[in-house]
């Protein structure tokens, strides 16, 4: 990774060169020498930049789906955005989260292994307060969950995981299922401490309450589908063929669709006084001659031209012409 100097560091470097504390020639020699970069085997790089970009795109959709879901459930302002997608050891993730937090441990078949959706207590208790009729504020002191609170949170987060399926559908069809809800990170060991994970951090705002929601995906869980996270997979167009049975069902439904058809004899304008004074036998003059063709509309679109008549003693309209899109625009 290339280091980027701040403006203060640039000013200090220029000042050192001008004062003679640093020699420009020595700096050039150092640049030509072979550089050695330290590699930390505890922080193994398992996700490429391409993988990180793909995970970012996927979970930006996940954030939008979550925003819609929680806004509907809580009936208040909710805003969720992806802040960062990074890779780090699982042990480091456990140490970074609060000792008392909401840990939704879940599986997503056909992937093998467990993942975690960690919700900051401020956010979780604001949701709980809103669901139970409150204003959506978080208590100053976070206590252990009661049985009722646990059941309520399990239900809302279990349904929230369904949005993960929608976000991942371009890569794989997942079936997320909440396995357990924990509050103490020390009791949650889904992978070995040194296992690399992808951590997706989501900033969450519910009303005036803010906090983080973290999605922990171990590398070992999504390793079988890592090739699908490449940019090539995203931009290769795959032609989808529709099964004959689906086409038959679609055609049958279209034939049953009902649309209003209106044969317009003409229009007229009268004032309210004339309308209130209408009596049986009164005649209203229309704006079209009797021998002029009628406009036949399907819905609100002009589609046919016809002429009025009768058939078997009933009023009827005979279609004499079909209106194309261009002719319709010219008529209007």
UniProtKB/TrEMBL annotation:
Its main location: other. Signal peptide: none annotated. It is a peripheral membrane protein. It is found in: Bacterial flagellum basal body; Cell membrane. Pfam families: FliM, FliMN_C. Residues 253-323 form the Flagellar motor switch protein FliN-like C-terminal domain. It comes from the Bacteria. This is Flagellar motor switch protein FliM. It comes from Paenibacillus chartarius. The lineage of its organism: Bacteria, Bacillati, Bacillota, Bacilli, Bacillales.
């Amino acid at each position: 990774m290339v280091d980027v100097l701040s403006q203060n560091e640039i000013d200090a470097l220029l000042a050192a060169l001008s004062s003679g504390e640093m020699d420009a020639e020595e700096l050039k020699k150092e640049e030509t020498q072979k550089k050695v970069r330290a590699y930390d085997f505890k922080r193994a790089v398992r996700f490429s930049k391409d993988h990180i970009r793909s995970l970012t795109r996927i979970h930006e959709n996940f954030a939008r789906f979550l925003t819609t879901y929680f806004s509907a459930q809580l009936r208040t302002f909710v805003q969720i955005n992806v802040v960062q997608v990074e890779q780090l050891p699982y042990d480091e993730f456990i140490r970074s989260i609060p000792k008392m937090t909401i840990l939704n441990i879940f599986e997503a078949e056909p992937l093998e292994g467990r993942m975690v959706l960690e919700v900051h207590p401020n956010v979780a208790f604001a949701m709980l307060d809103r669901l139970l009729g409150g204003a959506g504020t978080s208590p100053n002191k976070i206590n252990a969950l009661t049985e009722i609170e646990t059941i309520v949170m399990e239900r809302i987060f279990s349904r929230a995981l369904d949005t993960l399926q929608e976000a991942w559908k371009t890569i794989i069809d997942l079936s997320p299922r909440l396995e357990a809800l924990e509050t103490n990170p020390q009791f949650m060991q889904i992978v070995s401490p040194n296992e690399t994970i992808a951590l997706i951090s989501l900033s969450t705002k519910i009303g005036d309450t803010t906090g983080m929601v973290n999605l922990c995906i171990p590398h070992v869980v999504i390793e079988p589908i890592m090739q699908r996270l490449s940019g090539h997979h995203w931009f290769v167009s795959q032609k989808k063929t529709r099964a004959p049975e689906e086409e038959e069902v679609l055609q049958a439904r279209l034939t049953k669709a009902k649309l209003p058809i209106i044969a317009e004899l003409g229009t007229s304008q009268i004032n309210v006084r004339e309308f209130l004074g209408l009596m049986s036998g009164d005649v209203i003059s229309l704006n079209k001659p009797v021998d002029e063709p009628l406009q036949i509309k399907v819905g609100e679109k002009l589609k046919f031209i016809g002429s009025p008549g009768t058939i078997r003693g009933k009023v009827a309209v005979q279609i004499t012409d079909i209106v194309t899109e261009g002719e319709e625009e010219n008529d209007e």
